Protein backbone atom coordinates (compact mmCIF):
# COMPACT_ATOMS: atom_id res chain seq x y z
CA UNK A 1 0.00 0.00 0.00
CA UNK A 2 1.12 3.49 -0.72
CA UNK A 3 1.24 5.62 2.36
CA UNK A 4 -0.60 8.89 2.51
CA UNK A 5 2.16 11.42 2.81
CA UNK A 6 1.70 13.75 5.72
CA UNK A 7 2.23 17.00 3.99
CA UNK A 8 1.58 20.42 5.40
CA UNK A 9 0.72 23.67 3.85
CA UNK A 10 1.30 27.34 4.29
CA UNK A 11 -1.56 29.73 4.89
CA UNK A 12 -1.04 31.16 1.45
CA UNK A 13 -0.06 29.51 -1.77
CA UNK A 14 2.92 31.31 -3.20
CA UNK A 15 2.12 33.04 -6.47
CA UNK A 16 -1.60 33.22 -5.80
CA UNK A 17 -1.64 36.59 -4.08
CA UNK A 18 -3.28 39.23 -6.19
CA UNK A 19 -0.88 41.37 -8.13
CA UNK A 20 -3.01 42.75 -10.94
CA UNK A 21 -1.68 46.04 -12.24
CA UNK A 22 -3.22 48.25 -14.90
CA UNK A 23 -1.42 50.70 -17.15
CA UNK A 24 -3.04 53.19 -19.52
CA UNK A 25 -2.16 56.66 -20.80
CA UNK A 26 -4.27 59.31 -19.17
CA UNK A 27 -4.49 62.71 -20.81
CA UNK A 28 -0.93 63.86 -21.36
CA UNK A 29 0.46 61.34 -18.86
CA UNK A 30 2.01 58.23 -20.39
CA UNK A 31 2.12 54.93 -18.50
CA UNK A 32 4.60 53.47 -21.01
CA UNK A 33 7.65 53.56 -18.72
CA UNK A 34 5.77 51.98 -15.83
CA UNK A 35 4.46 49.20 -18.08
CA UNK A 36 7.97 48.53 -19.40
CA UNK A 37 9.26 48.42 -15.82
CA UNK A 38 6.53 45.88 -14.95
CA UNK A 39 7.58 43.71 -17.94
CA UNK A 40 11.18 43.78 -16.74
CA UNK A 41 10.24 42.87 -13.18
CA UNK A 42 7.68 40.16 -14.03
CA UNK A 43 9.26 38.29 -16.88
CA UNK A 44 7.11 35.20 -16.25
CA UNK A 45 3.96 37.32 -15.96
CA UNK A 46 1.18 37.75 -18.48
CA UNK A 47 -0.72 40.75 -19.69
CA UNK A 48 -3.90 41.59 -21.55
CA UNK A 49 -3.96 44.28 -24.16
CA UNK A 50 -7.46 45.66 -24.70
CA UNK A 51 -8.17 45.74 -28.43
CA UNK A 52 -11.72 46.98 -27.80
CA UNK A 53 -13.79 47.31 -24.64
CA UNK A 54 -14.95 43.72 -25.07
CA UNK A 55 -11.93 42.00 -26.59
CA UNK A 56 -8.37 41.49 -25.37
CA UNK A 57 -5.27 39.62 -26.43
CA UNK A 58 -3.24 37.69 -23.87
CA UNK A 59 0.58 37.79 -24.07
CA UNK A 60 3.59 36.76 -22.06
CA UNK A 61 5.53 39.68 -20.57
CA UNK A 62 8.41 39.04 -22.94
CA UNK A 63 6.33 38.93 -26.14
CA UNK A 64 8.47 40.35 -28.94
CA UNK A 65 5.40 41.95 -30.51
CA UNK A 66 5.98 44.69 -27.94
CA UNK A 67 9.71 44.93 -28.57
CA UNK A 68 12.46 42.51 -27.50
CA UNK A 69 14.11 42.84 -24.14
CA UNK A 70 14.86 43.54 -21.40
CA UNK A 71 15.92 46.26 -21.69
CA UNK A 72 12.65 47.31 -23.32
CA UNK A 73 12.46 50.43 -25.46
CA UNK A 74 11.72 53.72 -23.69
CA UNK A 75 9.02 56.27 -24.44
CA UNK A 76 11.47 58.51 -26.27
CA UNK A 77 12.49 55.80 -28.77
CA UNK A 78 10.09 57.24 -31.35
CA UNK A 79 8.00 54.05 -31.42
CA UNK A 80 4.96 55.49 -29.68
CA UNK A 81 3.44 54.53 -26.34
CA UNK A 82 2.59 50.90 -25.56
CA UNK A 83 -0.08 52.03 -23.13
CA UNK A 84 -2.34 54.01 -25.44
CA UNK A 85 -4.53 50.92 -25.03
CA UNK A 86 -5.15 49.55 -21.55
CA UNK A 87 -2.72 46.88 -20.35
CA UNK A 88 -3.83 44.59 -17.51
CA UNK A 89 -0.97 42.63 -15.98
CA UNK A 90 -0.90 39.64 -13.64
CA UNK A 91 -0.96 35.85 -13.53
CA UNK A 92 -3.14 33.73 -15.79
CA UNK A 93 -5.73 32.90 -13.12
CA UNK A 94 -5.99 36.54 -12.04
CA UNK A 95 -6.38 37.77 -15.59
CA UNK A 96 -8.99 35.11 -16.30
CA UNK A 97 -10.92 36.28 -13.26
CA UNK A 98 -10.55 39.92 -14.31
CA UNK A 99 -11.77 39.15 -17.83
CA UNK A 100 -14.77 37.28 -16.45
CA UNK A 101 -15.84 40.16 -14.26
CA UNK A 102 -15.17 42.74 -16.97
CA UNK A 103 -16.94 40.66 -19.64
CA UNK A 104 -13.94 40.73 -21.92
CA UNK A 105 -13.28 37.97 -24.46
CA UNK A 106 -9.68 36.81 -24.34
CA UNK A 107 -7.68 35.52 -27.27
CA UNK A 108 -4.25 34.00 -26.85
CA UNK A 109 -1.29 35.36 -28.79
CA UNK A 110 -0.25 32.43 -31.00
CA UNK A 111 3.30 33.72 -31.13
CA UNK A 112 3.47 33.50 -27.32
CA UNK A 113 1.93 30.00 -27.41
CA UNK A 114 4.57 28.86 -29.91
CA UNK A 115 7.35 30.39 -27.84
CA UNK A 116 6.13 28.45 -24.79
CA UNK A 117 5.20 31.52 -22.74
CA UNK A 118 1.51 30.83 -22.87
CA UNK A 119 -0.33 27.56 -22.58
CA UNK A 120 -2.47 26.64 -25.58
CA UNK A 121 -6.14 26.93 -24.65
CA UNK A 122 -7.24 24.00 -22.50
CA UNK A 123 -3.76 22.62 -21.93
CA UNK A 124 -2.13 21.40 -18.76
CA UNK A 125 -0.57 23.47 -15.99
CA UNK A 126 2.55 22.60 -13.99
CA UNK A 127 2.84 22.20 -10.22
CA UNK A 128 5.44 21.13 -7.71
CA UNK A 129 4.15 18.84 -4.97
CA UNK A 130 6.39 18.52 -1.97
CA UNK A 131 6.92 15.42 0.14
CA UNK A 132 8.62 15.58 3.53
CA UNK A 133 11.17 12.78 4.00
CA UNK A 134 10.88 12.88 7.78
CA UNK A 135 7.11 12.31 7.64
CA UNK A 136 6.59 10.39 4.40
CA UNK A 137 7.93 7.01 3.39
CA UNK A 138 9.57 7.97 0.11
CA UNK A 139 10.41 4.39 -0.82
CA UNK A 140 6.76 3.80 -1.62
CA UNK A 141 6.41 7.03 -3.59
CA UNK A 142 6.62 7.27 -7.33
CA UNK A 143 6.12 3.83 -8.76
CA UNK A 144 5.33 4.24 -12.42
CA UNK A 145 1.72 3.40 -13.27
CA UNK A 146 0.57 3.43 -9.62
CA UNK A 147 -1.43 6.13 -7.96
CA UNK A 148 -1.16 7.64 -4.52
CA UNK A 149 -3.37 9.86 -2.41
CA UNK A 150 -1.86 13.06 -1.07
CA UNK A 151 -3.33 15.81 0.99
CA UNK A 152 -3.05 19.52 1.39
CA UNK A 153 -4.75 22.14 3.51
CA UNK A 154 -5.32 24.41 0.59
CA UNK A 155 -5.45 23.05 -2.93
CA UNK A 156 -5.00 25.54 -5.78
CA UNK A 157 -8.34 26.74 -7.13
CA UNK A 158 -7.16 26.58 -10.71
CA UNK A 159 -5.69 23.12 -11.02
CA UNK A 160 -7.29 20.49 -13.22
CA UNK A 161 -7.22 16.77 -13.85
CA UNK A 162 -4.30 16.02 -16.17
CA UNK A 163 -2.04 18.80 -14.89
CA UNK A 164 1.63 17.90 -14.72
CA UNK A 165 3.05 17.37 -11.22
CA UNK A 166 6.72 17.30 -10.28
CA UNK A 167 7.45 15.53 -7.01
CA UNK A 168 9.94 17.31 -4.82
CA UNK A 169 11.55 15.78 -1.75
CA UNK A 170 11.94 18.33 1.04
CA UNK A 171 14.79 18.63 3.53
CA UNK A 172 17.26 16.94 3.85
CA UNK A 173 17.00 15.39 0.36
CA UNK A 174 16.10 18.53 -1.59
CA UNK A 175 15.84 17.13 -5.06
CA UNK A 176 13.26 16.22 -7.65
CA UNK A 177 12.28 12.57 -7.31
CA UNK A 178 9.46 11.96 -9.79
CA UNK A 179 6.90 13.17 -12.25
CA UNK A 180 3.18 12.51 -12.25
CA UNK A 181 -0.16 13.84 -13.31
CA UNK A 182 -3.12 15.02 -11.30
CA UNK A 183 -5.50 12.07 -11.62
CA UNK A 184 -8.19 13.59 -9.41
CA UNK A 185 -8.02 17.03 -7.78
CA UNK A 186 -10.69 16.19 -5.22
CA UNK A 187 -11.02 12.83 -3.50
CA UNK A 188 -12.53 14.25 -0.38
CA UNK A 189 -12.24 16.74 2.45
CA UNK A 190 -11.99 15.18 5.92
CA UNK A 191 -12.77 18.33 7.87
CA UNK A 192 -9.14 19.36 7.99
CA UNK A 193 -7.43 18.63 4.71
CA UNK A 194 -8.28 18.04 1.08
CA UNK A 195 -7.15 14.83 -0.60
CA UNK A 196 -6.04 14.54 -4.18
CA UNK A 197 -4.89 11.62 -6.29
CA UNK A 198 -1.58 11.50 -8.13
CA UNK A 199 -0.74 9.09 -10.93
CA UNK A 200 3.00 8.46 -11.03
CA UNK A 201 4.47 8.65 -14.52
CA UNK A 202 8.00 7.72 -13.52
CA UNK A 203 9.61 5.52 -10.96
CA UNK A 204 11.67 7.33 -8.38
CA UNK A 205 14.31 9.35 -10.18
CA UNK A 206 17.53 10.99 -9.22
CA UNK A 207 16.49 14.43 -10.43
CA UNK A 208 18.08 17.85 -10.23
CA UNK A 209 19.09 19.14 -6.81
CA UNK A 210 18.18 22.45 -5.20
CA UNK A 211 21.60 23.92 -6.09
CA UNK A 212 21.19 22.88 -9.70
CA UNK A 213 17.73 24.41 -9.96
CA UNK A 214 18.61 27.62 -8.14
CA UNK A 215 21.35 28.27 -10.66
CA UNK A 216 19.07 27.57 -13.63
CA UNK A 217 18.21 30.62 -15.72
CA UNK A 218 14.54 29.70 -16.02
CA UNK A 219 13.78 27.77 -12.82
CA UNK A 220 15.91 29.79 -10.42
CA UNK A 221 13.05 32.12 -9.55
CA UNK A 222 10.44 29.39 -8.85
CA UNK A 223 8.62 29.90 -5.55
CA UNK A 224 9.26 26.38 -4.19
CA UNK A 225 13.02 27.02 -4.22
CA UNK A 226 12.81 30.00 -1.89
CA UNK A 227 13.66 29.24 1.68
CA UNK A 228 10.72 29.90 3.91
CA UNK A 229 7.50 28.74 2.34
CA UNK A 230 6.47 25.46 3.86
CA UNK A 231 3.74 24.25 1.59
CA UNK A 232 2.59 21.26 -0.40
CA UNK A 233 1.63 22.63 -3.78
CA UNK A 234 3.53 25.31 -5.65
CA UNK A 235 2.77 26.67 -9.12
CA UNK A 236 5.27 26.71 -11.96
CA UNK A 237 4.86 28.95 -14.95
CA UNK A 238 4.52 27.33 -18.33
CA UNK A 239 8.09 28.23 -19.17
CA UNK A 240 9.36 26.79 -15.88
CA UNK A 241 7.33 23.60 -16.35
CA UNK A 242 8.63 23.21 -19.83
CA UNK A 243 12.21 23.72 -18.65
CA UNK A 244 11.72 21.14 -15.88
CA UNK A 245 10.48 18.60 -18.43
CA UNK A 246 13.54 19.38 -20.49
CA UNK A 247 15.86 18.76 -17.52
CA UNK A 248 14.08 15.47 -16.85
CA UNK A 249 14.08 14.54 -20.53
CA UNK A 250 16.75 11.90 -20.23
CA UNK A 251 15.78 10.75 -16.75
CA UNK A 252 12.94 8.28 -16.74
CA UNK A 253 14.05 5.83 -14.08
CA UNK A 254 16.68 5.60 -11.41
CA UNK A 255 20.00 3.98 -12.22
CA UNK A 256 19.21 0.80 -10.28
CA UNK A 257 15.92 0.55 -12.09
CA UNK A 258 17.51 0.97 -15.46
CA UNK A 259 19.84 -1.99 -15.02
CA UNK A 260 16.96 -4.31 -14.29
CA UNK A 261 14.90 -3.00 -17.20
CA UNK A 262 13.08 -5.77 -18.98
CA UNK A 263 13.30 -6.32 -22.70
CA UNK A 264 10.15 -5.16 -24.47
CA UNK A 265 7.70 -7.92 -25.28
CA UNK A 266 6.74 -8.78 -28.88
CA UNK A 267 3.46 -6.94 -28.42
CA UNK A 268 5.20 -3.83 -27.10
CA UNK A 269 7.58 -3.90 -30.05
CA UNK A 270 4.72 -4.24 -32.52
CA UNK A 271 2.92 -1.36 -30.87
CA UNK A 272 6.00 0.81 -31.07
CA UNK A 273 6.52 -0.04 -34.73
CA UNK A 274 2.91 0.86 -35.44
CA UNK A 275 3.22 4.20 -33.70
CA UNK A 276 6.48 4.98 -35.46
CA UNK A 277 4.77 4.40 -38.79
CA UNK A 278 5.22 1.37 -40.95
CA UNK A 279 8.62 1.70 -42.53
CA UNK A 280 10.40 4.97 -42.92
CA UNK A 281 10.32 5.13 -46.72
CA UNK A 282 13.18 4.80 -49.16
CA UNK A 283 16.37 6.77 -48.72
CA UNK A 284 15.43 8.84 -51.76
CA UNK A 285 11.95 9.69 -50.39
CA UNK A 286 13.41 10.52 -46.97
CA UNK A 287 15.82 12.95 -48.59
CA UNK A 288 12.93 14.67 -50.39
CA UNK A 289 10.91 14.91 -47.18
CA UNK A 290 13.87 16.35 -45.30
CA UNK A 291 14.59 18.97 -47.96
CA UNK A 292 10.93 20.02 -48.10
CA UNK A 293 10.78 20.31 -44.31
CA UNK A 294 13.92 22.45 -44.13
CA UNK A 295 12.57 24.70 -46.87
CA UNK A 296 9.25 25.13 -45.05
CA UNK A 297 10.94 25.81 -41.70
CA UNK A 298 13.32 28.40 -43.20
CA UNK A 299 10.42 30.17 -44.88
CA UNK A 300 8.51 30.27 -41.59
CA UNK A 301 11.34 31.61 -39.42
CA UNK A 302 12.29 34.23 -42.04
CA UNK A 303 8.70 35.43 -42.30
CA UNK A 304 8.63 35.66 -38.49
CA UNK A 305 11.55 38.10 -38.60
CA UNK A 306 14.41 35.72 -37.76
CA UNK A 307 17.80 35.79 -39.37
CA UNK A 308 18.27 32.15 -40.43
CA UNK A 309 21.63 30.44 -40.81
CA UNK A 310 21.88 26.85 -42.09
CA UNK A 311 24.21 24.81 -39.93
CA UNK A 312 23.12 21.31 -41.03
CA UNK A 313 26.57 20.52 -42.38
CA UNK A 314 28.25 21.31 -39.06
CA UNK A 315 26.56 18.33 -37.32
CA UNK A 316 26.08 20.18 -34.04
CA UNK A 317 22.72 18.72 -33.07
CA UNK A 318 20.45 21.17 -34.87
CA UNK A 319 19.86 22.49 -38.39
CA UNK A 320 19.12 26.20 -38.25
CA UNK A 321 20.57 28.92 -36.08
CA UNK A 322 17.93 31.64 -35.88
CA UNK A 323 18.60 35.09 -34.48
CA UNK A 324 16.34 38.04 -33.88
CA UNK A 325 17.81 40.92 -31.91
CA UNK A 326 19.17 39.34 -28.74
CA UNK A 327 17.13 36.17 -29.17
CA UNK A 328 18.62 32.98 -30.50
CA UNK A 329 16.98 29.63 -31.28
CA UNK A 330 18.66 26.38 -32.22
CA UNK A 331 16.13 24.73 -34.47
CA UNK A 332 16.16 21.04 -35.27
CA UNK A 333 13.94 20.39 -38.29
CA UNK A 334 12.21 17.04 -38.75
CA UNK A 335 9.98 16.19 -41.66
CA UNK A 336 7.51 13.35 -42.05
CA UNK A 337 5.59 12.22 -45.11
CA UNK A 338 2.33 11.64 -43.23
CA UNK A 339 0.65 12.97 -40.10
CA UNK A 340 1.10 11.57 -36.60
CA UNK A 341 4.17 9.52 -37.53
CA UNK A 342 7.32 9.39 -35.45
CA UNK A 343 10.75 10.67 -36.34
CA UNK A 344 14.30 9.69 -35.57
CA UNK A 345 16.78 11.72 -33.55
CA UNK A 346 20.46 10.88 -33.48
CA UNK A 347 22.13 10.61 -30.08
CA UNK A 348 23.72 14.04 -30.63
CA UNK A 349 20.37 15.61 -31.49
CA UNK A 350 18.76 13.99 -28.44
CA UNK A 351 21.49 15.27 -26.13
CA UNK A 352 21.13 18.75 -27.62
CA UNK A 353 17.39 18.68 -26.90
CA UNK A 354 18.13 17.74 -23.28
CA UNK A 355 20.74 20.37 -22.59
CA UNK A 356 20.27 23.41 -24.80
CA UNK A 357 17.98 26.15 -23.47
CA UNK A 358 17.75 27.64 -26.96
CA UNK A 359 16.63 24.34 -28.50
CA UNK A 360 13.49 24.16 -30.57
CA UNK A 361 12.03 21.32 -32.64
CA UNK A 362 10.24 22.26 -35.83
CA UNK A 363 8.27 19.23 -36.97
CA UNK A 364 6.89 19.49 -40.49
CA UNK A 365 4.24 16.88 -41.17
CA UNK A 366 3.01 16.01 -44.69
CA UNK A 367 6.13 17.83 -45.79
CA UNK A 368 5.78 16.86 -49.48
CA UNK A 369 2.09 17.54 -49.98
CA UNK A 370 0.58 19.97 -47.51
CA UNK A 371 3.16 20.98 -44.89
CA UNK A 372 1.84 21.39 -41.34
CA UNK A 373 4.29 22.85 -38.88
CA UNK A 374 4.45 22.23 -35.12
CA UNK A 375 7.03 23.86 -32.87
CA UNK A 376 8.18 22.46 -29.53
CA UNK A 377 10.67 23.61 -26.94
CA UNK A 378 12.96 20.83 -25.72
CA UNK A 379 10.73 20.27 -22.71
CA UNK A 380 7.55 20.19 -24.74
CA UNK A 381 9.12 17.68 -27.11
CA UNK A 382 9.94 15.29 -24.25
CA UNK A 383 6.41 15.67 -22.93
CA UNK A 384 4.76 15.11 -26.31
CA UNK A 385 6.69 12.09 -27.57
CA UNK A 386 7.92 8.82 -26.20
CA UNK A 387 11.57 8.08 -26.92
CA UNK A 388 13.01 4.64 -27.46
CA UNK A 389 16.61 3.74 -28.19
CA UNK A 390 16.52 2.07 -31.56
CA UNK A 391 19.85 1.37 -33.15
CA UNK A 392 22.96 -0.53 -32.21
CA UNK A 393 26.22 -0.54 -34.07
CA UNK A 394 28.09 -3.81 -34.39
CA UNK A 395 31.85 -3.63 -34.85
CA UNK A 396 34.29 -6.52 -35.23
CA UNK A 397 35.93 -7.36 -31.92
CA UNK A 398 39.41 -6.06 -31.47
CA UNK A 399 42.08 -8.66 -32.22
CA UNK A 400 39.59 -11.21 -33.55
CA UNK A 401 39.17 -10.67 -37.26
CA UNK A 402 35.83 -11.92 -38.46
CA UNK A 403 36.37 -14.83 -40.80
CA UNK A 404 32.84 -15.18 -41.99
CA UNK A 405 32.59 -18.88 -42.85
ZN1 LIG B 1 2.42 37.66 -27.63
Q: Any ligands, ions or cofactors bound here, and which?
A: zinc ion
Tally of DSSP helical segments: 10
Q: In percent terms, what proportion of residues is strand?
A: 15-25%
Biggest sheet, spatial arrangement of strands:
7-10-9-8-6-11
List the uncertain runs. 1-17, 252-262
Structural class: alpha+beta
Span of the ends, CA to CA: 57 Å
Query: How many strands?
Result: 16
Q: Describe the largest sheet.
A: 6 strands, mixed
Task: Please state the CA-atom Rg, rounded to the nearest Å.
Answer: 24 Å
What order do the helices and strands follow? EHEEEHEHEEEEEHEHHHHEEEHEEH
Assign an overall shape.
globular
Tell me roughly what share of residues is in helical segments: 10-25%
List the helices and strands and how they pair.
Blueprint: E1 21-23, H1 32-41, E2 46-50, E3 55-60, E4 87-90, H2 92-102, E5 105-108, H3 110-114, E6 126-131, E7 147-152, E8 164-169, E9 175-184, E10 194-200, H4 210-214, E11 233-236, H5 238-248, H6 255-259, H7 266-276, H8 283-303, E12 307-310, E13 320-324, E14 327-335, H9 347-355, E15 359-365, E16 372-377, H10 378-384
Parallel strand pairs: 3-5, 6-8, 14-15
Antiparallel strand pairs: 1-4, 2-3, 2-4, 6-11, 7-10, 8-9, 9-10, 12-13, 13-14, 15-16
Zinc ion is lined by residues 59, 63, 65, 109, 111-112.
Amino acid sequence: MLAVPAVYWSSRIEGERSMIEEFVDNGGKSAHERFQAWRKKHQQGLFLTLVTRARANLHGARCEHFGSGPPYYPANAGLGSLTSKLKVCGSESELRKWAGISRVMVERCQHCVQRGRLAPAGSTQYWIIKAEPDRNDLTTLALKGRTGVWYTGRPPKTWNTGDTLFIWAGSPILKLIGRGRLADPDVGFDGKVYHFRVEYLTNRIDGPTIEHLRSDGVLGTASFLKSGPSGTVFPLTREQGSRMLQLLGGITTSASDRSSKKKPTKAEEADLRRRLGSGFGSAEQNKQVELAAIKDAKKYYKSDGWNVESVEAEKIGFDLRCRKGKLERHVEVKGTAGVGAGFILTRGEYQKAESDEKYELCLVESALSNPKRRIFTGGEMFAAFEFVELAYKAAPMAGKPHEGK
